[in-house]
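Hey all, sorry for the wall of text incoming. These are the two entities for the joint prediction.
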Amino acid sequence: MEEEKVEQTLILPHKKRLCRVVFDYAWRILLFIVIFTPALLIQNMELNIIRAKPRLYKQSLYLPSGRNIRLISLGYDRFMADFIWLRAIQAFGGIWESDRNYQPIYHLFDVITDLDPHFIEAYTFGNLVIGDEGGDQHLGLSLIDKGMVKNPLTYKLPYWGGYAAYWQMNDPVLAKFYYNRALKAPDVPGFVARILAYMELKSGRYRVAFEKYLRDWLEAIDNRDDVVADIASTRILDVVNEWQIFTLRQAARKYVKMTGKDPQNIHDLERAGAIAPYPLVMVPVLKERVRYYGNQPGKIVDHFQDILNACIEQNATIIPPHPRGYWYQFNPSLKPEDDAYIVDAETYVDRLSHLLGIVRSRIRVFYHDHKRYPYSLIEIYKAPFTIPEPFGGEWIYYPFDGTFRSSTMPRL
Amino acid sequence: MSKIFAIAFNTFKEAVRNRILYILLVFALLIMASSGIVGELTISARDRVIKDLGTASISFFGLLIAIFVGIGLVYNELDKKTIYTIVTKPIDRYQFLIGKYLGLLLTIYVNILIMTFFFLAVIYYQQYMSDETLTKALWARLPNGECIAPTIFTYLFYYIKSMVFSGVQGFGTLIFVYRVDATADILPLVFYSCLEMAIITAFAILYSSFSTPTLSALLTILTFIIGRLNADIIIFADRLKGKGLTTLASKLKYDFAWLAAHVTPNLWLFNRRTSLAVDTVEVRIESYPIIYGILYSTAIIYLAVHIFRKRNFK
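and here's what came out:
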């Protein structure tokens, strides 16, 4: 039958034969379209249903344990870990767009790190997602702890642990533990030591912090690393500043206990003998010693102990000079028992400059719009200007030339 | 020896005509080519995802080629009676089987070579396409700090140039072991995959010397699974022992697990990336997996030869 058909086709004239072939193909293609199009339509409908449904990320949260997946993966553990890693990122995105409950995602990171214990990004990203975004810092840190056991030679995990402990949990002691661990890793970069010194400062171990920064400074000078030397020297002044504020704060509390009244002036503390003997860092001596040893042959860090002994005066009982040339004073809005009762003027000068800048810019805008200065600040703010002057002084405004100043620091 | 090589070469020629081979190869190359897209899905660890996908593809598709091409090699000779034309010639059966084994191994290795070249080229190409490199290459900076946007021709020229350079670099890595950080571990990992394939192929030949292709495929896959789980089996045996072998059943289970762990191939040995203690350590080629791979596959081929010699072709 088929052969007859072929023969019939062959004996047809050329044009008719061509038409027959084209027709033959055409109806086959048409048949294919007729069958395939409904299939595609059904597929399209299904896709729309899937799109309309909530994200399916939660399915991936019900994975078996890492041990079981490891058995199934037949040695393709890393590949499987990568696959679940991609799912974890999708799940993170899905949760971020919905209820933002990140705790269930912990299981995914647990499985990934079971499959590949050396997947550093899974630990750090998992910690960020569960700790930072999810708010469960302890669960996040448990991932870091797991990674630290399996990867003792990398600084990255304890570094991120320290970050979470200090910046998220506000726990400098725990942060110190992590940064100390990071320092033991062979690949640790230099800045981790400075972060650890900062943690010492924040946990109240001023002397340790001071010594760490001092050593860092001297090493940076030896290595001709100007950037690090600059950072370290700045941090030294910060440490000295905070150390002295701490000392004065203790003295203020002692003064209240001794006299039963609040001190009126910072020098009252010294006069009443409320300042307990403390180690005073003499910044000018420190700078002079560093300059002196810097001009000597050999490494300056070898004179660390000499510099340290020279710049610290033990058992000082005077009001400490501000390391940057400012001064210390009481915060008039607080009581001696408050932590921020004694402040350094530097902080307040910054705040004062900021406030002055804001008000002066508003005055300039007013002048630009009205071609005159406002008669009072009420004209700008449509209400009395009630922001207190940071030093407890008064605001001074001259309507004839638009000058706005503080009574405490009129030159600023 | 020349007879073995003649059979091996003919087996290779026969195997490269197999369509399954090309289908598998195309699939492998497609997966590797798509690794760049997969890499885009990840937040970090992009290089790692691309590398893992590529090395896993080489290993997995190498395995599939070993199974699906290997299982039919001996059986087809028997089924089509072409074996009669060979055994009537002055060729020993062991020469025939070893020739078949080497021919199949050559086929697999050539495929792995192609996949590795392609994979290396993909990695190099990804490097050319990184944001940093693209910016440096395409955005010209004037002395006053202004940037000039590239034209379509600059783009086109850069893409073509990147492809060519990636290919050249991939070739250089394969032949002259030229490498950069991104490709440092790939050649050793591929080498270990080749050793693993030598054992799997030996098993495929062994099974096909006495059974049907379907059964051979099944047995080879099972051998691969057991081989990859070898380390877990011995841990399981130790656990049984730790719990105490008080009953006969537990004693039997322990003996069976112990025997299985010691007799089946330890393919875990070739999974170097996972078995390394620290991720930062570079994968190195060590002597004992090579010796193990050669000895084990020789032993299996010896067994296959023994079975094949006893086999009646009627």
